[in-house]
């Protein structure tokens, strides 16, 4: 495994390290040397390669056949999922996303997460590293009470249940979390929740047992102190999980649902963290979630490139293999360049999380959340083009990959929100050098 071309020399003075660059600076002011992966990380990487090759990819046909036979609106879990989970646990591939459980750094986890992205519908869940559960588990691990951990975190870590994160709303631009309108009104020792959410991923899965819901507890407080997060069991009276929304006409197994909350009552002990801490909790949750998404996206890009190469080598047109055509070779080369650039940014963000924490890495994570899906989509699009008509049907995985990664440019914050954050940081940063004013008078 080679998570990065940058390795530690063992000499902190020579390596530089986190003090060798300023917080949030994206320009390479002396790149820090990345630490070499641990023996355990190398072991797990090799185990993951074998697992994807021997178990996951061969299981895709069974998964696809089960889903194809399912009636519209049927979100029954294909049996192969639980079979793969059992096999992954036997191989020690479980909860690798959480450093306290796996012993891996984010940088060490990145190449393993990338491998899971080769089969995004099967591999992440097989190793219990699937969204939105990973973000919810991290949130409960970080801010949950002992009772919340016992009741919800432990069965999530065990892969016994699933969960959903209910933040996005149809009536407001939810990329701005302060817009959220769902009300959470204190009534004695309870909160009463009223509101409507949508794009609640995972809520249609029959194993989903709990929702983490964001809403307003005090509309009169400071803007970023109005929101709170509550743990809401799905069987609470007043919770109505409605239709699942298709993505580019395709219905995902776990669903992306409309959820209505009508006078839903939960105890005050359902608060995650503290009342008024919902906005901060959302940022804490979404940061790791974003970087894990882009890690997996790289795997999808690699799969698309591998398919492109195989197609070019095995398909002939106009008297010779497609691989002999300069235009095809150019597309393959451009795809490799884009994936390597995206991976470098992703790994730098992961290293910064390890070295300085989520807050220091927020601009790098934002940059990766924009750049990686764009690069991966570009590669997938080229692969679709090279596959011709087959590329836009379900004859290959490419159309599914395209739909998911196009949606990635919207979920967990749209490109525009991240670009605004990055631009704001650049516009307030002092330049490294004082530059002379441009003189226009000489031109007239």
Summary?
GO terms for molecular function: acyl-CoA dehydrogenase activity; flavin adenine dinucleotide binding. By secondary structure, the chain is of the alpha+beta class.
Feature tags:
Butyryl-CoA Dehydrogenase, subunit A, domain 2; disordered N terminus; 9 strands; alpha+beta; 444 residues; 13 helices; 4-stranded antiparallel beta sheet; Butyryl-CoA Dehydrogenase, subunit A, domain 3; 46% helix; 3-stranded mixed beta sheet
Characterize the structure shown:
Its cofactor is FAD. Residues 43-160 form the Acyl-CoA dehydrogenase/oxidase N-terminal domain. One of its GO terms (molecular function) is flavin adenine dinucleotide binding. The chain has 444 residues and is α+β, with helices and mostly antiparallel strands. Among the domains are: 161-272, Butyryl-CoA Dehydrogenase, subunit A, domain 2, CATH 2.40.110; 280-427, Butyryl-CoA Dehydrogenase, subunit A, domain 3 (Up-down Bundle). It is 46% helix and 14% strand. The protein has 13 helices and 9 strands. The strands form 3 sheets. The protein has a 4-stranded antiparallel β-sheet, with no helix packed on it. The longest helix has 37 residues, at 278-314. It is globular. The model is unreliable at 1-30 (pLDDT under 50).
Number of strands: 9
Can you tell me the CATH topology of the domain at 280-427?
A: Butyryl-CoA Dehydrogenase, subunit A, domain 3
N-to-C terminal Cα separation, in Å?
Answer: 60 Å
- List the total number of helices: 13
Strand content: 5-15%
What is the correct CATH architecture of the domain at 280-427?
Up-down Bundle
CATH superfamily assignment of the domain at 280-427? Butyryl-CoA Dehydrogenase, subunit A, domain 3
- The H-and-E topology, N to C, reads as HHHHHHHHEEEEEEEHEEHHHH
* Secondary-structure class: alpha+beta
Uncertain parts: 1-30
Range of helix content:
40-55%
């Amino acid at each position: 495994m080679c998570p990065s071309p940058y390795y530690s020399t063992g000499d902190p003075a020579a390596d530089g390290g986190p003090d060798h660059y300023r917080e949030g600076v994206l320009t390479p002011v002396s790149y820090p040397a990345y630490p070499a992966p641990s023996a355990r990380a190398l072991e797990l990487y090799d185990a993951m390669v074998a697992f994807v090759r021997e178990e996951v990819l061969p299981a895709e046909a069974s998964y696809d056949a089960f889903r194809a036979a399912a009636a519209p609106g049927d979100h029954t879990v294909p049996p192969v999922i639980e079979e793969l989970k059992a096999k992954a646990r036997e191989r020690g591939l479980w909860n690798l996303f959480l450093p306290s459980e796996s012993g891996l750094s984010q940088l060490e986890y990145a190449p393993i997460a990338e491998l899971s992205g080769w089969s995004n519908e099967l591999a992440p869940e097989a190793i219990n590293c699937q969204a939105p559960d990973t973000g919810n588990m991290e949130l409960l691990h970080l801010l949950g009470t002992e009772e919340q951990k016992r009741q919800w975190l432990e069965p999530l870590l065990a892969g016994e249940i699933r969960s959903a994160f209910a933040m996005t709303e149809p009536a407001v631009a939810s990329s701005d979390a302060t817009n959220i309108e769902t009300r959470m009104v204190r009534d004695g020792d309870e909160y009463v929740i009223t509101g409507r959410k949508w794009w609640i991923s995972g809520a249609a899965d029959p194993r989903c047992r709990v929702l983490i819901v964001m809403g307003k507890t005090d509309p009169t407080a400071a803007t970023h102190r109005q929101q709170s997060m509550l743990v809401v069991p799905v069987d609470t009276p007043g919770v109505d999980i409605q239709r699942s929304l298709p993505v580019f006409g395709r219905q995902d197994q776990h669903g992306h649902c409309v959820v209505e909350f009508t006078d839903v009552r939960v105890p005050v002990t359902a608060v995650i963290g503290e009342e008024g801490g919902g906005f901060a909790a959302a940022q804490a949750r979404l940061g790791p979630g974003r970087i894990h998404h882009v890690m997996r996206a790289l795997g999808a890009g690699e799969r698309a490139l591998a398919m492109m190469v195989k197609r070019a080598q095995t398909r002939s047109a106009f008297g010779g293999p497609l691989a002999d055509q300069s235009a095809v070779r150019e597309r393959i080369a451009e795809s490799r360049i884009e994936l390597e650039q995206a991976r470098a940014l992703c790994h730098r963000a992961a290293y910064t999380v390890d070295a300085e924490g989520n807050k220091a890495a927020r601009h790098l994570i934002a940059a990766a959340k924009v750049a990686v899906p764009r690069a991966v989509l570009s590669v997938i699009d080229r692969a679709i083009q090279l596959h011709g008509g087959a590329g836009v049907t379900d004859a290959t995985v490419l159309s599914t990959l395209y739909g998911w990664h196009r949606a990635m440019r919207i979920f967990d914050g749209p490109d525009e929100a991240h670009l605004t954050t990055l631009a704001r940081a650049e516009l307030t940063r002092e330049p490294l050098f004082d530059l002379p004013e441009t003189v226009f008078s000489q031109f007239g």
